[in-house]
# Entry
Amino acid sequence: MTRILFLLALLIIISSCSKNENEMILTGSIKGLKKGTIILERIGDTSLIRLDSVVIDGDPTFTIVEEIAEPEMLYLYLRLKNGELLDERIPFFAESSEINITTTLENFGNDYEISGSINQDQAKNYNKVMNRYIDKNLELIKNELTAAKNGDDSLVIAYQKQRQNHISSKYLAAINFAKNHPDSELAPYIMITDAKEVNVKYLDTVYQALSPKIKDSKYGKDLESLIAKRKK
# Structure
């Protein structure tokens, strides 16, 4: 009887110490922050939903443990000690792993490093591609404004045409990136956020290329719903 009780107690201890397979351990540091509140949120149907928060008081490091049923985009916000909520936010692909985010108070939402998330690593590569298109678009806008200021209508029209072609190229790059990552939740996320305006046949092409697991994911289902809505 004593042996049975010992084994039961041992099983309880082992069970209590085992890591939750759906657990995200989010750690981080905000250099320069003395006091404030780190807020973890997700986007709901009509508003932001707060998941957790951590008060910073002297030590700029933080830890948040959250259950993540499946990979999804979450956001870190910062509320300063005076109650002001910064406009900047840090988006990151959360998943059941150990994720680390480092940034500074001065450049909270503009200069940060994220590690520990496979989807986030892929998102980083995707953002590098998209940033090149953003930079080129800004250059074309600048050139168009200069041409308009100089009264050169023909050049304005030429730059407008270049911008339209550039936008089409940007959409094509997003579609190709999604098609090349059929086993990643990032693929349907790209389509429903950055390419939802493209012809529905391209949305459907990406959806059909997704693996069964990704089709059944949160963003896979969102993409399926978008396609059905667009086909009506």
